[in-house]
Amino acid sequence: MRISEDNKLEKIIIVGDRVLIKPKTARDQTKTGLYLPPGVQEKEKVQEGYIMKVGPGYPIPADFGYDEESWGQEEEEVRYIPLQAREGDLAIYLQRDAIEINYLGEKYFIVPQSAVLMLVREEDL
After folding, report:
1. What are the tens digits of pLDDT across the range 73-113?
2. Comparing 15 with 76, which gets the higher pLDDT?
3. Which among 33, 41, 71, 77 could disulfide-bond with 26, CB atoms 3.0 to 4.6 Å apart, if both were Cys?
4. Do the beta carbons of residue 88 and residue 53 sit within 8 Å?
5. Of 94, 113, 104, 119, the residue nearest 54 (C-alpha)
6. Angstrom distance (rounded) from CA 63 to CA 8
7. Integer-rounded Cα radius of gyration of the chain
8. How would residue 1 be classed by pLDDT, with cut points 50, 70 and 90?
9. 92: Cβ–Cβ under 8 A, 6 or more apart, which residues?
10. pTM (predicted TM-score)
11. Domains and their CATH numbers in the chain
């Protein structure tokens, strides 16, 4: 089975308050024309990349109560407070909180929502 570019992230499920970010390609030349060795851009404290997948959010604890009627009922599904980030947003995030993974030869970062400093959203996407 060959995984196409469109659905290669389809099977990934991001957990909780985390987002999956594909880093922007680093420029190897500065604005003044100096060429940077590999890895210099990656050591910056703040990085940017595109959000590819978003977790469900922050879980809300279930309120079970103590009334007798709740004994015969099934447990509720877990509810979540959704995240601000959406797929396709450009995220500015703290590198120190990011966890690097390689998936199908591509580099991604799993970043908690609290490490995302700013989002740039194109409404036309």
Report:
1. 566 677 889 999 999 999 999 999 999 999 999 999 999 99
2. 15
3. 41
4. no
5. 113
6. 38
7. 19
8. very low
9. 46, 47, 48, 116, 117, 118, 119, 120
10. 0.72
11. 18-60+78-119 (2.30.33.40)
Q: What is the dihedral of CA 101, 107, 110, 114, to 10 degrees?
A: 140
Contact 16, 56 (CB under 8 A): yes
Please, are residues 26 and 42 in contact by the beta-carbon 8 Å criterion? Answer: yes
- DSSP one-letter string for 7-64: TTTTT----TTEEEEEEPPPPSB-TTSPBPPTTTGGGSSEEEEEEEEE---EEEPP--
